[in-house]
Amino acid sequence: MKPENVLILPGWQNSGPDHWQSRWEALHGYQRVDQHDWMTPRRGDWIARLEDVILGCDGPVVLVAHSLGCILTAAWAEVSRSTGRVQGALLVAPGDPEREELQGLLPSWAPIVRQRLPFPSTLVGSRNDPYCGFGKAQSLAGSWGSRFVDYGDRGHINAESGLGDWPEGLALLNELTDKKDN
Fold first, then answer.
1. What are the Cα distances from residue 14, in Å, to 7, 35, 39, 87, 103?
2. How far apart, in whole angstroms, are the C-alpha atoms of residue 21 and residue 56?
3. For residue 126, what is the domain's CATH number?
4. Is residue 38 a part of any domain in this protein?
5. What domain count does the chain have?
6. Residue 38: CB atoms within 10 Å
7. How do residues 11-58 score in pLDDT, each as one tens digit?
8. Residue 108 located in a structural domain
9. Scanning 129, 131, 132, 181, which has the fewest C-beta atoms within 10 Å of its C-beta?
10. Could you tell me if 123 and 117 are in contact, meaning their C-beta atoms sit under 8 angstroms apart?
């Protein structure tokens, strides 16, 4: 897998420099899917942008999604004709735009698409994620046909979780890409 075909899908407001996604981008040459508007995300715009990037890649891709990026993955897969290009998806700490306090901020993201993903996926959930309950994360994994990984009490599995380069996450990604070193 070419590094530029590992696509980083940050969530709402993007991933800062200390986030494991940004660290992987810098360390491994993975490609961030930049969105036009990180602060007021519109589902259709984000889907269109992801489709454009995937179509611009030479060969298969792997998606590495965090938070709203997980919700984007499911929404994109529901409407895209390019899902066959995706080798797998690592879905980490899905956000929950169906929560009452987020519906006004993320109006185009609810309801969450709950269709089985047409490619292998692993969903990593935290028991104390403030943006998605553990049961909801497990339910999403079931709906999407994802292998579920219980990551314990790690918050939103972001920079505040103190993961650094997150080697455990990289090992999960390598399982999806069939690579032992990355």
1. 14, 9, 8, 24, 19
2. 21
3. 3.40.50.1820
4. yes
5. 1
6. 15
7. 999 999 999 999 999 999 999 999 999 999 999 999 999 999 999 999
8. yes
9. 181
10. no
